[in-house]
Amino acid sequence: MIEYDDLRQRINPLFREQYLPVFGVLLTLSVLFLVVSGLTQRKLETWREHEWNKTSFRYRPSSSAVKCPIVSVIACWVATVALMPLHLFVFFGKA
Questions:
Q1: 0.90 cut: is pTM over it?
Q2: Domain count within the chain
Q3: How confident is the model at residue 90 (pLDDT cuts 50, 70, 90)?
Q4: Residue range of the domain that includes 14
């Protein structure tokens, strides 16, 4: 964004005129999925710790079950696979 005028010709011609709104949307999506991936990582750590504690000789089952957040993990992977090429297409793709 700082050198927008210098690098303007490298941006995909389809998005060149509306660069700032597109950049804002992509930045918002990236930050959103960064938060989602952080929360998913915390859930995975809780699940891993719970599974590890089950192997301990001092394990006492609790009433709350801890499940692996598989849906969140899949959503994070899909978002990564979709957003990275989209960013590259917007910034460096050819129309």
A1: no
A2: 1
A3: confident
A4: 1-18+51-95
